[in-house]
Specification:
Elements: E1 3-13, E2 18-28, E3 32-36, H1 43-50, E4 58-63, E5 78-82, H2 93-103, H3 109-118, H4 132-145, E6 150-154, H5 162-178, E7 182-186, H6 190-193, E8 199-204, E9 207-213, H7 214-220, E10 221-227, H8 228-235, E11 239-246, E12 249-255, H9 266-272, E13 276-278, H10 282-294, E14 320-323
Parallel strand pairs: 3-7, 3-8, 5-6, 6-7
Antiparallel strand pairs: 1-2, 1-4, 8-9, 10-12, 10-13, 11-12, 11-14
Helix pairs in contact: 3-4
The structure holds adenosine-5'-triphosphate (ATP).
């Protein structure tokens, strides 16, 4: 396993905020990573520093073993596109593409042209006069056609409509399959992107909350729905990330600790106890994990997720929501 990026004890302090707080994380080369987290979590700060566009307050960043800042050996291998991408004043898309051709050694001009047609980027409109979606299209084309060894997409696709976003996901995956490289994407539309991601790094208030292959993470989480006692018994020693009770029914999203073995008879036991075992989408999981992080004191263990008492309110009673523990970092 080769890492494209190694970040060690990285902090970034501003006068009024700590954007990154002692972050140590690596991004494996040749993998599509999702960098996920709530607003203000530190995603842009991390990408800006790893791409050499901002300086850390303390700590170290290496891209292919080299410090990226003002480093001509490594900067041409890094592309960082963001929603508020800056362009040369009064430029057209073709000027942005020409500049990219000079900056990125693997730039594919034909691909950029084809993508511009696919995304219907207007050739005769200055970028600053384009609609938000058209500007987003220019940014994602730069990100794909640069074919940089490490490409950061800091939500440039947020301006795209649903059809154009789908086109972006398809074209990116197609090109990545042909030209494997390291992609790091941040997004709040997690379920839309989930099928692309191989690894997720979750950042919360400047700290790494989780770093794990998507498949492993998905395999650790389930939602159990059924009679409260049976759900709690089935949850066993797993962490309850989130639970809601509706009358006597408890719905609990639970997470096995990394390395904790799966119960091969869970489905059978659940069926016998009248409990449904449902998959958890990546988005639900990240929402539960990061909203758990937001509630400082409410920590639920499987034995205390506020289930209704056996003589609890009727089926029309409002849902009770509890949130689980605050951090989950796996190796
Ligand atoms: N130049 C700056 N000056 C002061 N504070 C900053 C600066 N840049 C970032 N911050 C603060 O650092 C924290 C992390 O910001 P960052 O932009 O990295 O978050 P993010 O995860 O990208 O958020 P979003 O999803 O909303 O884009 C925020 O509290 C932000 O206000």
């Amino acid at each position: 396993m080769t890492n494209a990026i190694d970040i060690t004890h990285l902090s970034r302090h501003h006068r009024d905020a700590t954007a990154l707080d002692d972050v140590t994380v690596s991004f494996e080369a040749g993998v599509i990573h999702g960098l996920l987290g709530r607003n203000g979590a530190g995603k842009t700060s991390l990408m800006s520093i790893a791409s050499g566009q901002d300086w850390p307050s303390t700590g170290d960043v290496r891209v292919f073993g080299l410090r990226p800042h003002e480093n001509e050996q490594v900067l041409p291998r890094i592309c960082f596109v963001r929603e508020d991408q800056r362009y040369i004043e009064d430029s057209f898309a073709r000027h942005a593409f020409k500049a990219a051709a000079m900056a990125y050694p693997h730039w594919d001009a034909d691909l950029a042209e084809r993508l511009a047609e696919d995304f219907q980027v207007p050739a005769r409109t200055r970028i600053k006069k384009m609609s938000r979606g058209q500007r987003s299209a220019v940014a994602v084309i730069l990100g794909i056609a640069s074919r940089a060894d490490v490409t950061f997409f800091d939500e440039p696709y947020m301006g795209l409509d649903a059809v154009a976003r789908q086109l972006f996901y398809d074209r990116l995956l197609q090109d990545y399959t042909e030209y494997p490289r390291t992609l790091i994407l941040s997004t709040h539309l997690i379920d839309e992107l989930a099928h692309l991601l191989e690894n997720v790094v979750v950042i919360d208030r400047g700290r790494i909350l989780l770093d794990e292959p998507v498949e492993s993470l998905r395999g650790r989480a389930v939602t159990l729905v059924g009679p409260a006692d049976a759900v709690l018994s089935l949850a066993g020693s797993r962490r309850v990330l989130h639970s809601e009770s509706m009358g006597r029914t408890l719905r609990a999203t639970v997470l096995r600790a990394p390395g904790q073995t799966e119960d091969p008879f869970e489905e059978q036991r659940a069926r016998a106890d009248g409990v449904e075992v449902l998959p958890v989408s990546l988005q639900q999981l990240i929402v539960h994990l990061t909203s758990a992080g937001a509630s400082s004191s409410s920590s639920s263990s499987p034995s205390s997720p506020s289930p209704p008492p056996p003589t609890g309110p009727g089926p029309d009673a409002p849902a009770v929501t509890t949130t689980g523990p605050s951090s989950e970092v796996s190796s």
